[in-house]
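hi! just following up on the protien thing from before. the input was this:
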Amino acid sequence: YKNGQVDRSVMFYDPDVYLDAAFASAGESDGYIADPWQASFYMQDKIEWEEMIVNAGVRLDFWYIGDEYEIIQDDGSFKKFKFEDVNKYNISISPRLGMSYPITEVDVFRFSYNYQNQLPPMQYIFTSYEPQDAIISNNNIVVGNPELEPQVTITYEVGLQHQFGEDYVIDISAYYKDIYNYINTRSQNFEDDETVKYFQYISQDYGSAKGIDISLQKRLSNYIAGSISYSYLSANGNSPGETLQDEPTNLREYALPWDIRHASGLNLQFRVGRDEDFYLPFTDFNMPFGWRGDFNLSFIYSFQSGKPYTPANEDGNALEPYSERMSYSDNANLNITKRIYLSEKFFFKTYCMINNLFAKRNDLTVYARTGSPFYDGVDLSEPNSDYVYDERQFVHDAATRNPGHISAGRYVTIGVAFNW
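and the predicted 3d structure came back as:
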């Protein structure tokens, strides 16, 4: 009211009007509601026949994706999509077999066969898009597929273990894996308009991996224990990841994202037991490491060759998938603990953990043009000149120099724990 009269220039809106206006101005909305569930059962039996030991097992996986799921629309409503009965259920059976046999008193041979079914992640079945979204969208639309098959991995492994004396054991194993039904995408034409294209997840691609693992272990004796290991891996597939592709899967194989060819590790442990004496080498001086409790010092070092990545040319167009590799990475950790018992049940423990002991900077993510974690290789110069404004370079560097692209530096944790 204004001066006793109703002021018609002032409008009052119901809350639902504001909600409708928010949905109308929000643009595209993403999201869905689904209620899938899955269950698994595993049974294993151990058979000992003379000196041979056989472990045989089978795993049963079952899933039910539901009768339907709902995709949110831009106006806030939900649209239901029903599944065909043949796609609602999936049952997978995975047999496993392992065998070990002592060849001599110090040599043991083993063999294993593993047939593994891995259910596809649900985000590849349920998606926020439907094919008709490709009509108005300026982006590539990828829709889910309820007909996805479980990813099948068949593994064969052989190994040999040999003991040297009382303290040393060497273990050598070789393996080969076949991976079927790798998930990728395939181009589809909209049924009402062949000029409209969208992508759908499919279970079709193939991958393989082979490698060898070698490790030497020293059991605890004379205060020292440790191990050293080396692994070689070669993992390839006919499609490197979930790439949007128009043509059938390429018969050529590429390196897979987790193809890390060489990896090694070193683990050294120095341990003095409770109330145990330790004399400095070549002296009669007794270090009180074992006073009222044990003392433990461990040094862990790991090394691995670079991960593969897909390079790009100066225009930003991707080149051959995963044809370049990042720099190698390594890391060292040092842990020290000391327990002090005040009684049989009450003790406190002091500890010091140093992660990334040598403050090594490892690249976690690199730019495709340059292979650098900070420099992306984008040309910031003015057209027809080589001049770059300082302001533009500063803002660009602030955006591209992401500290998450490299590993964390050295950090130290010191603490005390009590037990009673």
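The longest helix spans residues 15-25.
The two ends are 74 Å apart (CA to CA).
cheers
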